[in-house]
Specification:
The chain is of the alpha/beta class and 371 residues long. It is built from 13 helices and seven strands. α5 runs parallel beside α7. The chain binds guanosine-5'-triphosphate and magnesium ion (MG). Its main location: cytoplasm. This is GPN-loop GTPase. Its EC number is 3.6.5.-.
């Protein structure tokens, strides 16, 4: 049942928000989905989400998915049949699933009146979803039908070092620019490691510089190494990126931070409506006018080709008809017999030599070669 916050100003039901969980292998995506699922079920009134498992290789799913890729595709069979390794198998399974995604979207549309959230759990290997055609197809299809937000799950304990933090952020940055969707950085596993230093690095560029320096990226002369310079420059780029983002610390184990995560999701819904949707409409219109222009070009080209062929037919015809006219009076021979020219090939101008030789005609004085 839809909660009151899920109603539009006209009192009708708002579309559910789709949360796509993406993150490095083992960052806690599946556990996070399970945690938000139990949180939504514990609300009063409960708001059970619609859950999709897109990981074909997972053995145990702790939540009960409404749609499970494993029901339609046997990932081990895909590996066998296509002679693939585990990652190729997962990628091919996802590609096969994407070909039927219109049906999945129909099922989601059917349930959209009864749920407030739809959650997608993605495969462990992040690049399989983020850099594959099928990942893009699924993301674009969902985002063009529902308000959609990417929850980028960060393994906080494994991201505590400045270098790993930066590479994780660069990855997040690339996904943000690829999907252009509202983006939430979810610092998971905060029960193990506090994300505070990392949040400080995001707020204050100089703090990150300090952390880099204390890591000791200096050469024998005490000068920063090329690695340090590279990281310094990249951190400047990322500084811009951080301004676009909301970061929420959570623990999928204890449930800490989950209500804050849903506040960020509500803000992301607004962002989707004010920024993503108009951009989507603009791109769609641009594509439609590009298509119209291409159609118009093709149409005028076709017309031109048609005219050209009509012209060439006409000129052929005129050639023939002028010849006909020319020989009209010569269609009969001297004995009044009709000359059968059916064996003549093509519009070769025909001259009745016999006639021009006749005395008193135009060719009277011509010296015709004697046979
Ligand atoms: N301490 C702690 N451990 C967590 C938390 N969330 C997940 N884990 C553990 O992290 C490990 C990986 O969790 P998963 O939920 O399977 O991670 P995943 O990102 O779905 O993994 P793949 O799908 O294989 O990439 C498991 O051992 C979890 O128990 C958390 O908030 N705190
Ligand atoms: Mg998982």
């Amino acid at each position: 049942m839809a909660s009151s916050s899920a109603l539009t100003s006209e009192g009708s039901k708002k579309k559910p928000v789709v949360i796509i969980t993406i993150g490095m292998a083992g960052s806690g995506k599946t556990t996070f989905v399970q945690r938000i699922n139990s949180y939504l079920n514990s609300l009063s009134p409960p708001s059970p989400p619609y859950k999709l498992n897109l990981d074909p290789a997972v053995i145990n799913v702790p939540f009960d998915p409404n749609i499970d890729i494993r029901d339609t595709i046997d990932f081990k069979e895909v590996m066998k049949q296509y002679n693939l390794g585990p990652n190729g198998g997962i990628l091919t399974a996802l590609n096969l699933f994407a070909t039927k995604f219109d049906q999945v979207l129909n099922l989601m549309e059917k349930r959209s009146d009864t749920v407030d959230y739809m959650i997608l759990d993605t495969p462990g290997q992040i690049e399989i979803f983020t850099w594959s055609a099928s990942g893009a197809i699924i993301t674009d299809a969902v985002a063009s039908s529902f308000p959609t937000v990417v929850a980028y799950i960060i393994d906080t304990p494994r991201t505590a070092a400045p270098a790993t933090f930066m590479s994780n952020m660069l990855y997040a940055c690339s996904i943000l620019y690829k999907t252009k969707l509202p983006f939430i950085l979810v610092f998971n596993k905060t029960d193990v490691t506090s994300p505070e230093p990392m949040l400080e690095w995001m707020r204050d560029f100089e703090e990150f510089q300090k952390a880099l320096t204390s890591e000791g990226h200096r050469d024998a002369d005490g000068e920063p190494t090329y690695m340090n310079s590279l990281m310094n420059s990249m951190s400047l780029v990322l500084d811009e990126f951080y301004k676009e983002l909301k970061a929420v610390p959570v623990s999928s184990y204890t449930g800490a931070g989950i209500p804050e995560f849903f506040k960020a999701v509500e803000a992301a819904r607004q962002e989707y409506e004010t920024e993503y949707l108009p951009e989507l409409a603009r791109v769609t219109q641009e594509r439609a006018s590009d298509r119209k222009l291409a159609e118009k070009k093709e149409e005028s080209l076709n017309r031109f080709m048609k005219d050209l062929s009509v012209d060439s037919k006409r000129s052929q015809f005129e050639k023939w008809s002028s010849v006909d006219e020319e020989v009209e009076e010569d269609d009969y021979d001297d004995d009044g017999e009709y000359i059968d020219r059916s064996e003549e090939k093509g519009p070769v101008p025909m001259i009745d030599i016999g006639k021009v030789r006749k005395p008193g005609t135009a060719g009277e004085h011509i010296n015709w070669p004697k046979p």
